[in-house]
Amino acid sequence: MRGGKALHGSRLHILSDSEIQNIHHSSLEILEEIGIRVHLKKMRTLLADHDFRVDEGDRTVKFPAALVERFLKKCPHGFVLRGTDPDLQWRISPETRAWVGLGTPFRMLDASGR
Prior knowledge:
This protein is α+β, with helices and mostly antiparallel strands. It is built from 3 helices and 5 strands, in the order αβαββαββ. It has helices at residues 17-33, 41-49, 65-74; strands at 36-37, 53-55, 60-62, 79-82, 89-92. A 3-stranded antiparallel sheet has the order 1-3-2. A two-stranded antiparallel sheet has the order 4-5. The radius of gyration is 19 Å and the shape is extended.
């Protein structure tokens, strides 16, 4: 707050673009070389159907970087969180700033307390 007004146009940058890219590339390397253990058989089958590498013995899925990048391009730019009241909606996009705790927020309020 400055002079009693919120600064709506500012953005907090904690990491540089190169640091973000380094994290992204390291994540792709981990997904491709180590993979993730997926306990749900239905999910492993779905991922195998989309050409991800599934090892049924140890229930791990490895995600080739090219496939991850292909599916990332298909992700929507944003989405809308809707409350039980149809008038309560919040569009989430890369420009959205949201501060939440370590858990999943189950009750969210806008600036007016609604």
